[in-house]
Amino acid sequence: MSHLVVCGLNYHSSPIAIRERFTIPQSCLKHALEALKRLPHVTEAVLLSTCNRTEVYAVVSDVQAGWREIDFFFSSTQQIGDHGALKPNFKLLREDVAVHLFRVAAGLDSMVLGEAQIMAQVKEAHQAALEAKTAGPILDHLFMLALNCGKRVRSETEMGRRAVSVSSAALELARGQVGALNNLNVAVVGAGRMAQICVKLLLSEEGTGTINLLNRTPERLGEFIKNNLPNLHRLNTETSFDNRYEAAAKADLVIVSTSAPKTILDMEELNAARQEHGQKPTCIIDISVPRNVDPRVQEIEDVSLFNSDALANIVTRNLEEREACIAGAEAIVFEGLDAFHGWQRSQLVGPTIAELREKIESIRLEHMMKTASTKASSTHPEEIESISRAIVNQILHQPTIQLKATKDYEILRQQAEALRTLFSLDPLSCTHAARSQRRKRSHAGES
């Protein structure tokens, strides 16, 4: 029997100091999915790892055994001494998994309500699982419905137009700390998506301040400045990444957003650079996961340090309008859930009704042949055919109606299993396996 589960941790249940230890880098995703695939009770798996969450969506043959194996997966992938005390603390089962994923894709479960980046991350997680062949029919369909749900929320509600990105929330936090940003010396370390959004937002304002953009790969900076950016004269991309301490020491505001697996701003080196280049008040906002700024930096005099957890307190404006958006978005989420339920029911109802009809039909034909061979009946063969078909349809009518009317998936599964047992049909697991093999042969024939 198959059960849909999700297991992991996210910003609701764990602070960044814990979340960062469970982050799965993109370069390790394929290896992690292959490890999940080898777990005895896990039949399907998709791994979603972002700055706010690391969650394993899985189909398991036994819930408790599956959860234990996924716990083991998390602990075995962490090279940390205290991993025994750090375990996934977020678990959902069956339809709650679908609702959660739909809300995640819609941006309703993001730290920053309605953020757009999560859609791309869900899509990448889905695609990676398909390529690793760990997403079977259930998770494949579930993630397609989730992505469709996310698209509908952004196109049919105001959520997309009122979304606040992590980057814009970081700048809002900065304004609350240091005031207007357009005339300040700002250093942005990193050139990924969030860092680029920060730079674009900073350049959207007229001002005299300089924005220093630093990255390990200068080619990436060259590609970025080819965009049609306003106030490009304020942007400096000539500072070497190796000079990041000097740039940070001279800056009023430092935003750090890289994919580095460890800190790139150490307390001792930053303090030494400040001693050399001046000790002006500096606000540092680290939106990287894992964190890229040594937490001890906040001990330096006149330096204030914030990480991504601080952004959770930012998005409070336009609350009533956002709540109105949420209501419309949640309605779309539950429409998606109804669609998933309908698909699940079709996986049980369709094969069961078809095989039950085939079984009854074979019995009818068998007795028709016996009647024809004995020639004992004076009734015309066409009349016997018509009467026997009417009897079959009458027998199958009520079970068919009952199966199609049942909304609860677990009750439906029990009813389908009961019919299969009573009429000696193949178990559902065998039926699903046979259908999967047919699909594979069909795809092989197409290629």
- The first-level CATH class name of the largest domain: Alpha Beta
Helix and strand pattern: EHHEEHEHHHHEHEHEHEHEEHHHH
Could you say what the CATH architecture of the largest domain is? 2-Layer Sandwich
Q: Total domains, how many?
A: 3
Task: Examine the coordinates and then state which fold CATH places here, giving the name of the CATH topology of the largest domain.
Answer: Beta Polymerase, domain 2
Alpha-carbon Rg, integer: 29 Å
Shape: elongated
Number of strands: 10
Q: Largest sheet, described in full?
A: 6 strands, parallel
Structural class: alpha/beta
Q: What is the end-to-end distance?
A: 32 Å
For CATH, the homologous superfamily of the largest domain is named as Glutamyl-tRNA reductase, N-terminal domain
Q: What ranges have pLDDT less than 50 throughout 5 or more consecutive residues? A: 79-83, 438-447
The tally of helices reads 15
Q: Summarize the amount of helix as a percent range.
A: 40-55%
Overview of the structural elements:
With 447 residues, the protein is an alpha/beta fold. The protein has three domains: 3-163, Glutamyl-tRNA reductase, N-terminal domain (Beta Polymerase, domain 2, 2-Layer Sandwich), CATH 3.30.460.30; 166-313, Rossmann fold (3-Layer(aba) Sandwich); 344-372 and 380-429, no CATH class. The protein is 53% helix and 12% strand. The strands form two sheets. The protein has a six-stranded parallel sheet, sandwiched between helices. Helix 6 (137-156) crosses helix 12 and helix 10 (244-250) crosses helix 11. The longest helix is centred in the C-terminal third of the chain and has 56 residues, at 319-374.
